[in-house]
Design goal:
Distance between the termini: 16 Å
Number of helices: 17
Shape: globular
CATH class: Alpha Beta
Bound molecules: coproporphyrinogen III
Number of domains: 1
Number of strands: 9
Strand order of the largest sheet: 1-4-5-6-7-8-9
């Protein structure tokens, strides 16, 4: 069984198979070959040039032979296509050249134009599909809520103060923005489907800023049309960082898989909320920078053994791999999984 077949068999609920695996941000600065690419081209150039974006996506596959390959791009290409270009701050993090502040700003967003403007993404994805016929190919976008967080805040932030205020005091405008983003992202997702993806991951990285018990109203209902668009033709994975303990609020969305962080034990979620979903995760991402290869292998084994009785597990990290992760630790992780 090749990686792609293994990936689909896992979703079909087959047991006693190897655990398919990949890692979030697998193409990134922890790889010397990625740093080399970045010494010649900017991140935005790599993302916008299909051949370079393909190269970045392939780098971790050559080294580690993961079962899944994710498109090399960013969630912010969609805000750029909507007229809010992004860039990098000298001190780290990102900024947008414009922010959403008013009804006029929201009316000016042309959801229908994103597919045409993001042609470079689809070109890269089609090339990746062709290059790796035996691997599972993953497309992605942000959730409307998470994209709105960046478009209103205008920059990376720990607390998103402008966004939090806007969400509370301008709730009508806030929901009008979510509706528009939901439309744009549905079109974007559908076009990725035509490129031959096996799965589509929705990054709701900031979904935990939704009010308690209101994840459904604030985030999930706007993700729902995106999932419907992909329904039956690609597997859907929801990654909502820091939301694992609010799993009950995410479960009604009906994604095929939920990517969880390391605040929970996967088997406990799986047995508490019974359903037909797959769980993806959840090795603490920072371990790859701070632990020894032996410790990484041990923690990897514990997670695999924990989910073994149930099948329906894709191994991944709690969040993206960090630039200071050690290669020897990634090798230790891969070796343990393939044992
Ligand atoms: O997983 C992969 O390998 C695919 C590529 C991918 C990137 N960004 C490449 C990237 C994916 C899936 C993303 C998603 C993304 N982008 C998210 C959701 C995931 C998460 O981490 O919660 C978010 C919030 C963003 C927005 C974003 N992009 C930020 C805040 C930053 C800056 C972070 C920093 O390092 O300062 C980025 C840049 C970015 N996106 C990088 C990469 C490899 C680092 C850029 C570089 O090479 O310097």
């Amino acid at each position: 069984m090749n990686s792609r077949e293994l990936f689909h068999a896992t979703f079909a609920g087959e047991k006693n198979l190897p655990v398919p695996f990949w890692i979030m941000r697998q193409a990134g600065r922890y790889l010397p070959e990625y740093r080399e690419l970045k010494s010649k081209y900017s991140f935005v150039d790599i993302v916008k040039t299909p051949e370079l974006s393909l190269e970045a996506a392939l780098q971790p596959m050559r080294r580690f032979d993961f079962d899944c390959s994710i498109l090399f791009s960013d969630i912010l290409v969609v805000s750029e296509a909507l007229g809010l270009p992004y860039g990098f701050k000298d001190e780290g993090g990102i900024y947008l050249e414009k922010r959403i502040e008013s009804e006029k700003n929201i009316e000016a967003l042309d959801a229908e134009s994103v597919v045409e403007k993001l042609d470079y993404v689809f070109k890269s994805l089609k090339m990746l599909r062709k290059e790796l016929p035996q691997k599972a190919i993953i497309g992605f976008c942000a959730s409307p809520f998470t994209l709105a967080a960046y478009m209103i805040e205008g920059e990376s932030s720990k607390t998103f103060p402008r966004f939090s205020k806007f969400m509370k005091s301008e709730s009508k405008l806030f929901f009008a923005l979510l509706e528009k983003l939901s439309r744009a992202l549905s079109l974007y997702a559908k076009q990725q489907l035509y490129c031959g993806i096996d799965a589509f991951q929705i990054f709701d990285s900031h979904g935990s800023m939704s009010p308690t018990e209101k994840y459904g109203e604030y985030s999930a209902q706007w993700i729902s049309p995106i999932i419907s668009e992909l329904n039956a033709s690609a597997r859907t994975i929801l990654f909502a960082n820091n939301m694992s303990e609010r799993f009950a609020e995410m479960a009604p969305l009906g994604a095929d898989a939920y990517a969880l962080d390391d605040s929970v034990k996967l088997s406990e979620i799986f047995t508490t909320y019974q359903g037909h979903y797959v769980l993806q995760g959840n090795l603490k991402n920072t371990l790859l920078a701070t632990a020894t290869p032996q410790e990484v292998a041990k923690s990897t084994r514990e997670i695999i053994d924990d989910m073994k009785p149930y099948g329906r597990h894709i191994f991944n990290l709690s969040h993206g791999i960090t630039p200071d992760a050690k290669l020897e630790n990634v090798y230790a992780l891969c070796e343990e999984i393939k044992k």
